[in-house]
Amino acid sequence: MRVVVADDSVLFREGLVRLLAEKGHEVLDAVGDATALQEAVERNQPDLAVIDVRMPPAMESDGAKSAATLRARHPELGLLLLSQHIELHHVLPLVGTPGFGYLLKDRVLNLADFTAAAERVATGGSALDPAVVQALVLTRSGSALDDLTERELDVLGQVAEGLSNTAIAERLVVSERTVEAHIRSVFTKLGLSDEGTNRRVLAVLRYLEAH
After folding, report:
1. Measured CA distances, 80 to 7, 65, 118, 151, 167 (Å)
2. Of 91, 110, 127, which marks where a domain is finished?
3. How many angstroms separate the CA atoms of 174 and 179, rounded?
4. Name one Pfam family in it (predicted).
5. Are residues 121 and 93 in the same domain?
6. Tens of pLDDT along 86-137?
7. Looking at the structure, do residues 119 and 30 belong to the same domain, yes or no?
């Protein structure tokens, strides 16, 4: 895949560039501010933009704001946001759209998982840190999510990350049949259709946005 990386930390930015290159991906540009990010995407037309949420010039949510602008201009562009902290205000309109991911830097401990998430987002999938999903849930009270068991919420978090049933089973150390049963129960309780991995992820996330 063809990638543009945007992060104001030189060490972190160069680390991402090296990691992606070692995995066989083409890093077209690596920049340190939101303005340069916009220009790099327009110039290179990448498959994926890896974006730090807080960047110059304002050092607030410039990366998240730029991501929203880029999505409007380039609907097919994959957007993978990285942050030290969870920032939902400017991110919510993007959550649930194809080709969007949001990972916390401190929780990116497995490089293989990170590159898999990047590749998934670049091809229209999703990748959300479980902590981000939890934050979305906690901002909605009195919803049908209250009817879910702790295990069902756990499985829902894995689904929202974009993982397959097989991957969820491996991560939770349960059978794939058990995962399927939990997912059926989740969608029954939420009144959502269980048709296709991407569709069910988007449905869950949009449900979270609306409640």
Report:
1. 12, 13, 7, 27, 20
2. 127
3. 7
4. Response_reg
5. yes
6. 887 778 788 778 899 999 988 776 788 899 999 999 999 888 887 787 776 6
7. yes
Same domain, yes or no, for 102 and 15?
yes
Q: For the chain, what is the domain count?
A: 2
- Grouping H, G, I as helix, E, B as strand and the rest as coil, residue 123 is coil
Q: Which domain holds residue 184?
A: 134-210
Q: Are 53 and 81 in contact (CB under 8 A)?
A: yes
Rounded distance, CA 11 to CA 147, Å?
44
pTM over 0.70: yes
Asked which of 127, 155, 182 is the last residue of a domain, the reply is 127
Dist. CA 35–CA 163, nearest whole Å: 33
Under 8 Å between Cβ of 137 and 147: no
